[in-house]
Amino acid sequence: MTGTIHPITMPKWGLAMTEGLLAAWTAEEGARIEPGTEIVDIETSKITNALESTVAGTLRRRVAAEGQTLPVGALLGVVVDGEVDDGEIDRFIEAFQAEAAAAAESAAPPPEPKVIEAGGRPVRVLVTGEGDGTPVVLIHGFGGDLNNWLFTQPALTGRPVHAIDLPGHGGSGKDVGAGDLATLSRAVLDYLDAAGIARAHLVGHSMGGAVALATALDAPDRVASATLISSAGLGAEVNGGYVEGFIAAQKRKDLKPFLEALFTDPELVTRDLVEDVLKYKRLDGVEAALKTIAGNLFPGGRQATVMRDRLAGTTVPIQVIWGTADSIVPAAHADGLPASIPVHRFDGKGHMVHMEDAAEVNRLIAEFVAAH
Amino acid sequence: MSRKSFRQAVNEALAQEMRRDPRVILMGEDVAGGSGSPGEQDAWGGPLGVTKGLFKEFGPSRVLDTPITESAFIGAAAGAAASGLRPVAELMFVDFMGVCFDQIFNQAAKFRYMFGGKAVTPLTIRTMYGAGFRAAAQHSQCLYPVFTHIPGLKCVVPSSPYEAKGLLIQAIRDDDPVIFFEHKVLYDMEEEVPDEPYTIPFGEANLVREGEDVTIVAIGRMVQMAKAAAEALAKEGVDCTIIDPRTTSPLDMDTILESVEETGRLVVVDEASPRCNIATDISAQVADQAFGALKAPIKMVSPPHVPVPFAAGLEDLYIPNADKVAAAVRSVMGAPDRREAAE
Fold first, then answer.
1. Cβ atoms within 10 A of the Cβ of A86, count?
2. Buried b (16+ CB within 10 A) or exposed e, B251-271
3. What is the ipTM of this complex?
4. For A261-278, how does the pLDDT look when each residue is reduced to its tens digit (9 = 90+)?
């Protein structure tokens, strides 16, 4: 016997996920599997997505059936790399299930976000992962929060990963002060200070990309690398109608079309996803915070700060990731950047490319972070 | 964000609004408890402890224990609202509302209209309703249809702790009289409720669940019954939409009509007595405005037209439950499609 048996298990996408529905198998038993091959479609109350393999081999066994709802970590199937006979696979499955049952009894509670004081503001953060590597800090976009990284955060291992809520967002304080890019960048540095992080890899999405970039340019000694996803700050254009409509929408019906514009597949926008955003928007102070930030960063439907000219001069390694079908920030902003900056384009993907093609984006982040 | 009971959610909404706005006051029977006696003040916090702790924080000038005279203190609250305060009056059981109908129906509800739009009446009346508490016929009614009937009043019937907090803060900030209905049996229900203040707008139904086969509209506590029924029905392959109107006045008919246009089937669940209740109102409006979309007769799930029984077994039989909701859904699913039959 020379093969390796890899269990394929129910993923945990986001804090609230405790179980998922196996909607459909997309790989046949006996199929050759590569890292990135879609194996099954998983449905949760929040989102539906394809589970991609992280390993190579042959899908030898589908353990779970379509239509089954299973807890996070439950065995879905078995991929085998190399030669293993059926008896050994049976024994593996039996042992795995027994172990899972035992583990369920003594399971550690999943990590919960906490609110800490940073720079005089309450900042909500979810910290996962451990290890000696330089920490990663994930920075969401306008109107988003740390839950936007639900597919990203669990995939980055070997180092602490901090997903923060920017001022005015999620569970952080709703006082945004001047509410300009400098304020948001300062908030990231304040968080690094409060968390005792000397240097971090910053990963920013959309407006969070502009925040990560501004921080990298102004405080290069604190930033090990910057990954900019569908990023603001690289051109003047932005979908001003989106920004305005997102702020104005009070009802589910009004908000849903704007959230659908973030994805190329509108089916990804579930009732729960809309409800979560509405719950955030109903909090006292959120509307004023969003208006202040939008007034500073996107006045008149244009981006106020474009940092392209400063890219060539920085020592901080930067990579850029974009979905070519992004309808919020044009993917053309990734064109004509200095040659030192790797640009990864995802054909036909939308603004939330880190959710729509999570496995590949996660791989790019992990490799870039490991290399710097 | 943390798990809070319905009781805690209401208490937190009151405390946060009282901190934010000094014009917000509480008044009612035993909202502090112990007034005029040598014992502890804040002994009660209302009969079920909902306002407990507020007297300690805000003192006797803002948390007022009243005599057992609903007509007097509801009238006083309406007058205080018309002259600059934002009172939250607690009328212990909605069943007692009869003695202060004039103050509510003919005074508070009419001020804005009859004073040429120049008067505002930011009055919130909190009140307990509903059966299932073994409190007999005089303490168990669901009288929100009576108040829904009166133009000039807003009626709020929250279905969970999250809904209660956001809707109560909205009620206190609203410039019109609002009657806020709290189901006694829901007080211990828990769910995630944000620590920060937030508001849920009136007249916007909550889409509790999306399904393509049938639309269930449920009011207040009945939303929980509808959810249990929908889970059971999902196992039978019947996919339910559940709509919680949140407020019966204003009523979000748009959301209900749009859903019925999609599903073609409607079940309305209302714990109020069956004649002239919210179920009959919604059913009539759907029949009037979306008859052509219906694939089956509308089904209403309500209690029988009798006073709420005191005998525990009879009270349990009286209250609409998940089984009754599921049976109604099965009956509309089994009905022949009238539109196909007509072709």
1. 9
2. bbbebbbbbbeebbbbbbbbb
3. 0.87
4. 999 988 888 888 899 999
pLDDT digits (tens, 9 = 90+) for A44-64: 877 778 888 888 999 999 999
Interface of B with A (CB under 8 A): 1, 162, 166, 194, 196-201, 204, 207, 209-210, 255
**Residue in B139, B149, B183, B305 annotated catalytic:** B139
Q: How far apart are CA A148 and CA B179, in angstroms?
A: 38
The CATH architecture that domain A4-105 belongs to is Beta Barrel (2.40)
Contact yes or no for A148/A15 (Cβ under 8 A): no
Rounded to a whole number of angstroms, the distance from the CA of A286 to the nearest CA of chain B is 10
Instruction: Specify whether B305 is catalytic.
Output: no
Is the torsion defined by CA of B337, B338, B340, B341 positive or negative?
positive
User: 216-235 in A: which are within 8 Å (CB) of B?
Assistant: none
Nearest to B318 by CA among B140, B128, B148: B140
* A203 vs A188: CA distance, rounded Å: 12
Residue B128 bridge partners (DSSP): B93, B182
Average pLDDT over residues B274-299: 97
How many CB atoms within 10 Å of residue B250?
15
Tell me how far apart the alpha carbons of residues B215 and B269 are, in angstroms, rounded to a whole number: 11
Radius of gyration of chain A (CA): 21
**Single-letter residue type at A346:** F
Token pair for B142? 């669901």
Give the helix/strand (H/E) hosting B50.
none
Q: How many CB pairs under 8 A join A and B?
A: 29
pLDDT digits (tens, 9 = 90+) for A146-167: 999 999 998 898 899 999 999 9
Nearest of B258, B136, B178, B221 to residue B13 by alpha carbon: B178
Query: Which pLDDT tens digit goes with each residue over B151-169?
Result: 999 999 999 999 999 999 9
Which chain B residue has the Cα nearest residue A278? B200
Q: What is the pLDDT of residue B49?
A: 87
The better pLDDT of the pair B126, B343 is held by: B126
What pLDDT sits at residue B38?
72
Q: Residue B156: beta bridge partners?
A: B180, B247
Write down the domain spans for chain A. Answer: 4-105, 114-371
Cis peptide before B250 (omega within 30 of 0): yes
Which chain B residue lies closest to A280 (C-alpha atoms)? B198
Do the beta carbons of residue B262 and residue B294 sit within 8 Å?
Answer: no
> Closest Cα of chain B to A77: distance in Å?
25
Residue ranges of domains in chain B: 2-193, 206-335
Fold match flag (B2-193 vs B206-335): yes
Q: What is the CATH number of domain B2-193?
A: 3.40.50.970
Of B167, B169, B198, B206, which to mutate for an interface test with A (greatest number of A Cβ within 10 Å)?
B198
Token digits of residue A46: 């929040």
pLDDT > 90: percent of chain B:
90
**Rounded distance between C-alpha atoms, residue A8 and residue A55, angstroms:** 9
Nearest CA to CA, how far is A190 from chain B (Å)?
23
Decide if domain A114-371 falls under CATH 3.40.50.1820.
yes
With an 8 Å Cβ cutoff, are B194 and A271 in contact? no
The two tokens of residue B135 are: 């409190």
Fold of B206-335: Rossmann fold (3.40.50)
